[in-house]
Amino acid sequence: MEFPVITIEPAKVETACLVVPVFKDGDLLPTAAKLDDASERLIGQLIERGDFDATLANVQVIPFAPGLAADRLLLVGLGERAKCNEGSFRKVLDAALKTLVRMPIDEAVVALSDVPVPERENVWKARMIAEATRRAQYRFDIFKSEPAPASRLERVGLLIDESGDAATTEQGLHIGNALGEGINLTRTLGNLPGNICTPRYLAEQAEQLGKESAGALSVEILDEEALEALGARTLLSVGRGSAEPSRLIVLHYRGAENEQDAPHVLVGKGITFDTGGISLKPGADMDEMKYDMCGAASVLGTFKALAMIKPKLNVIGIVAAAENMPDARATKPGDIIKTLKGLTVEILNTDAEGRLVLCDALTYAERFEPASVIDIATLTGAMVMALGNHATGLFANDDDLALDILDAGETAWDRAWHMPLWDEYQSQLDSNFADLANIGGRPAGAVTAACYLSRFADKYPWAHLDIAGTAWISGKEKGATGRPVGLLTQYLMDREQDANVSDEA
Ligand code: BES
Ligand code: MN
Ligand code: ZN
Asked: Atom 8 in ligand 1: which residue has the minimum CA distance?
């Protein structure tokens, strides 16, 4: 996919389709106004006559463009000017790009940098445009006998005026393209069914990423024997009922000039299918528990983006992968297991398995003496009840880290919301028979799950992202979203900036 930056006169742009955004008030943006002048007021007249409705994300193809070098126009509604923000801009991009990928064309030019998104510069808009293009091209039809025709689109030109900085715009496009690829990898891993995407499959995919990265990534896999020797018994307890062996996958990205720089660590929950185990889940919608490895998938997607963006910092990814099944050998409610950290856990509900694989992975992270650790997990149904499908739940033992993550989510428009991790909730995890229980009762289920993890994350600044509501969508459009690859990649890119600032100081 190519994303050239174009600075020529709008009326002279030769393209199969020129995308032109229009506000509802009819006041044309600079490119639209120039096109209007050159085309005997084509756009202005369409709006005046009511032939184009500029409601947010409404699109209309104008098949001829007299006076213009473009073969067609694609008008995109921006809705009300006063309501224009990042969210509406992304809706506009998705609508425009989804239309473009369905058209019989292999290239297009977009004038979408004209949209005045408050406080967002060209470089940010360029990045959003490239990301939206890659997302719009996404297909998951490898299991269809007759897949829908793939998009022909190979080139999206970005029209900017001479005052726009072409170099930073190109940088934005490069980042957006990398993010799009990372997001799409995460979506594919999420969408793959449990009979294909097993812990071993995730490990192979990580190794594949390492091979493709031309030396940027190295990958280590711990099998069950290695995990036994290590003492990661809580992780192993989750996969005991499964015929599929568990894996701990460790990825290293070494980008810092100083090899010794403390790494940032991402830890992903990789339950490739969650039946609940002996505490079996009800049947309805259980197929969606194939998505219980979306945290792991977001770690791999972020590493894909990192290998393309190559920021100067060290990052380690840890994926705790297992399949949670009921079986004669499976862990039973009441079983007590010793964690890698040494604390004992009474497993009162085998369906609270995510925290069991994550606690050992969080202890494993200690050996890297990390600058920060973020775990990403489809951890609780309670998180979906609390925040729905728009915000990822954020919990942290460090307020600066929490602010950095909230900030990254705003920039990437992949937002999180800060939840409490107060000591008052911790006693819900008291156990009569072990150091702690793996469930904290019905009240504040997402908080007590985070409290459980916090017991294993006391050696470094740590945050937990509960993506149970944001990792996939249900219903007719069922599919993985690729979140929070945007947030995570932005968080890491911001840490590179931090390092530069402190070097200069
Ligand atoms: N993977 C689920 C959480 C989940 C459920 C995410 C539905 C998205 C949609 C997790 O392993 C789980 O089963 N959690 C239990 C915890 C409970 C037993 C304390 C839950 O949320 O019901
Ligand atoms: Mn579960
Ligand atoms: Zn689960």
From this structure: 468
Kindly report, residue by residue over 371-430, the tens digit of the pLDDT: 999 999 999 999 999 999 999 999 999 999 999 999 999 999 999 999 999 999 999 999
Q: What are the catalytic residues? A: 281, 355
Closest CA to 451 of 375, 406, 402, 395: 395
In the chain, the domains with their CATH numbers are 5-161 (3.40.220.10), 180-504 (3.40.630.10)
Closest-approaching ligand to the CA atom of 389: 1
Percentage of residues in the chain having pLDDT higher than 70: 99
Q: Which of 325, 317, 379 is nearest to 352 (CA)?
A: 379
Ligand 1 center to 380 CA (angstroms): 4
With a CB cutoff of 8 Å and minimum separation 6, the contacts of 199 are 239, 244, 245, 246, 247, 270, 272, 321, 322, 323
User: What single letter denotes the amino acid at residue 382?
Assistant: A
pLDDT in tens, 59-80: 999 999 999 999 999 999 999 9
At residue 163, the pLDDT reads 79
For ligand 3, a single-atom ion, the residues with CB < 5 A are 271, 274, 292, 354
In this prediction, residue 503 carries a pLDDT of 64
Asked if residues 202 and 299 have their Cβ atoms less than 8 Å apart, the reply is no
Read off the DSSP letter of residue 258: S
- Residue 440 CB less than 6 A away from ligand 1: no
Note the pTM of the prediction, 2 decimals: 0.98
Q: Pick the residue whose CA is nearest to atom 13 on ligand 1.
A: 351
Taking the CA of 378 as reference, the closest ligand is: 1
Q: Tell me, using a 6 A CB cutoff, whether residue 439 lines ligand 1.
A: yes
Distance from the alpha carbon of residue 499 to the mean position of ligand 1, in angstroms = 38
Mean pLDDT of 165-188: 97
